[in-house]
Amino acid sequence: MNQLNPAPSRRRFLAAAAGLGATAAAGTSGVAAAASGPRSLRVATFNIHHGASPADVLDLDRVARVIQAMRVDVVGLQEVDRFWKRSGFVDQPAWLGERLGMRHAFGANLDLDPEEPGRPRRQYGTAVLSRWPIRSWTNTPLPLVPGHEQRGLLRATLDARGACVDFAVTHLQHDDSQERERQSARIVELLGSSPGRTILVGDLNATSETPEIRTLTDVLGDVWPQAGTGDGFTYDSVNPHARIDFLLPSRDLRPLTAQVCTADPEASDHLPVVSELLLPVPHGR
């Protein structure tokens, strides 16, 4: 278990202070109404292909601009590098967090020797970027077929306007459906058979009718059939033909919207998905 709640930058602190001042000026009755009423959370999933385009042109700032344009509270990322030569030895989750003014957590599913002497160990996995404090996070390895890439489940507990939300990110095996079924079953074990205030996102490398996805949607919702329009295809980004990137909230979270973001299809080889979810009102309010 890792504790993660870095302090916001000065610019963000001043902006927050200005917002609090405006709220106070509106009167305490307005504050009470906002606190006790429904609240929403804007979430997304994005396989960033280590910051490279489908033509393998590296441009991490392009990825940041896509995330910025989605105006999300929290996003789960897949195929994230730390200290790889192919991505300029950048600590990508930290760089994106700083660039976007968001907290971050990273789950290293690969942890390998450095590619050059004196460099940090190179890591590869999934990440969470959040505008809300991250109270804690864990990364748990998922079932693995020998010789395949290690996959994991990154879980971050967020403080979303005073409500705890469990935000989980994964990236299932791309070429073995039986391995994906075992990975999905393990995810259900980790999240629980009746999870609450939970959102699972990720590149699941399978479509909605497959057994591995049904294992997950037996206990979680799927924002696309509930709030999306059209086919929802996310892969590949230039010629989308399959919906393999998912936002799966627990049953107590109601999807209000769901969109595939197509504004910049060459930022990665996947298209991101974004949804606004209505959170239940906390007990006692």
Fold topology:
Elements lengths: L9 H16 L2 H9 L2 E9 L12 H11 L3 E9 L9 H9 L2 E10 L9 E9 L3 E8 L10 E9 L2 E9 L5 H15 L6 E6 L7 H7 L5 H5 L17 E5 L4 E7 L12 E7 L6
Parallel strand pairs: 1-2, 7-8
Antiparallel strand pairs: 1-11, 2-4, 3-4, 5-6, 6-7, 8-9, 10-11
Helix pairs in contact: 3-4, 5-6
Order of helices and strands: HHEHEHEEEEEHEHHEEE
Fraction of helical residues: 25-40%
Distance between the termini: 30 Å
How many DSSP helices? 7
Into which percentage range does the β-strand content fall?
A: 25-35%
What characterizes the major β-sheet? 6 strands, mixed
Care to count the β-strands?
A: 11
Structural class: alpha+beta
Task: Estimate the mean pLDDT confidence.
Answer: 89
Radius of gyration, taken over Cα atoms and rounded to an integer in Å? 19 Å
Report the principal-axis shape: globular
Low-confidence sequence ranges: 1-35
Strand order of the largest sheet: 3-4-2-1-11-10
GO molecular function, one term: endonuclease activity
InterPro entries: Endo/exonu/phosph_ase_sf, Endo/exonuclease/phosphatase, GPI-anchor_lipid_remodeler, TAT_signal
Protein name: Endonuclease/exonuclease/phosphatase family protein
Keywords: Endonuclease, Hydrolase, Nuclease, Signal
What does this protein structure show overall?
It contains 7 helices and 11 strands. The chain has about 280 residues and is of the alpha+beta class. The strands form 2 sheets. A 6-stranded mixed beta sheet has the order 3-4-2-1-11-10. About 45% of the residues are buried. Residues about 1-35 have low confidence and may be disordered. This is Endonuclease/exonuclease/phosphatase family protein.
